[in-house]
Amino acid sequence: MRTKVIAGNWKMNNDITQTTELINGLKAALAGKSLNATVVVCPPFTSLGTAQQLIAGSVITLGAQDVSLYDSGAYTGEVSVGMLKAVGCTYVIVGHSERRQYHGETNEIINQKAKKVLAGGLIPIICVGETLQEREQNITDTVLTTQTTGVLAGLTAEQVERSIIAYEPVWAIGTGKTATKEQAEQAHVVIRSVIASLYSPATADKVVIQYGGSVKADNAKELLSQPNIDGALVGGACLKADSFASIITAV
Ligand code: PGA
User: Fold this and answer.
1) Domain 4-248 - what CATH class?
2) DSSP helix, strand, coil percent of the chain (3-state; round to 5)
């Protein structure tokens, strides 16, 4: 039985004051609720320390939005897995489509980052997803197969079982256009069957596969009730405590 994981990707939003407000708001909104999901917030690097202190003793866990390929040294602007671990992160998003699009991240780079994260004992949230053009060309399944195979290359079954895959159709990110529950479920089935053929059905059965792309309070329930959708990676709607809490409690 897979536990659902709801992660909020804050992207480049919230300074320290805003971080304090949002985390305190989320704690208040979740107080006294019995939850059926793991809750993760992924603030920008500059807010991780503040977030770590504020979430202490709460159900909220911490993730980062990216990580360096390297452990330390002359890599200006980069942040290592060890640094993320020391600031209390459990999760790291790797290969978000915005990293693929604006920072040239390829399946190979994302694969190396996932390996770094796993070697450091953290959990990668590895993103895959087709563009609108790819969906219109009817090559979604091929794209998802190539991406899933590429990002998981060389990982052991045990490492894959510890990883989270986020299916995020690029056309649904920040656009208000959500994949229908059928489209999302179908993509998750494809990803899970790729993992089954690369590893085994038993391994595939253990992997948490999140959906991301305009998840909101009013569509969370129907998406999250699909058999292969094991959580959500939420952008816009995680920036308001009440709307993120409604997505979490929809599980
Ligand atoms: P969105 O972003 O919820 O704003 O569409 C999702 C994401 O990019 O992870």
Assistant:
1) alpha beta
2) 50, 15, 35
Residue 49 half-sphere exposure, CB side, CA atoms within 13 Å? 3
Ligand 1 binding pocket includes 178 (Cβ within 6 Å): no
Q: Domain residue spans in the chain? A: 4-248
Of 105, 134, 168, 185, which one is the catalytic site residue? Answer: 168
Q: For residue range 194-223, list pLDDT tens digits in order.
A: 999 999 999 999 999 999 999 999 999 999
Is 96 an active-site residue?
Answer: yes
Q: Which atom of ligand 1 is nearest to the CA of 93?
A: 9
Q: Which atom of ligand 1 is nearest to the CA of 127?
A: 9
136 is catalytic: no
Predicted local distance difference test score (pLDDT) of residue 177:
87
1: pLDDT confidence band, cut at 50, 70 and 90?
confident
- Taking the C-alpha atoms of residue 166 and residue 63, their distance in angstroms, rounded to an integer, is 14
Q: pTM score, two decimals?
A: 0.98
Sign of the CA dihedral 142, 146, 148, 149? positive
Which of 215, 219, 218 has the alpha carbon at shortest distance from 6? 215
Instruction: Give 119-156 pLDDT, tens digit per residue.
Output: 999 999 999 999 999 999 999 999 999 999 999 999 99
Note the pLDDT tens digit of each residue in 170-200: 999 999 889 999 999 999 999 999 999 999 9
Could you tell me the distance, in angstroms and rounded to a whole number, from the CA of residue 72 to the centre of ligand 1?
30
Ligand 1 and 214: CB distance under 6 A: yes
What is the distance of C-alpha 19 from the center of its chain?
A: 19
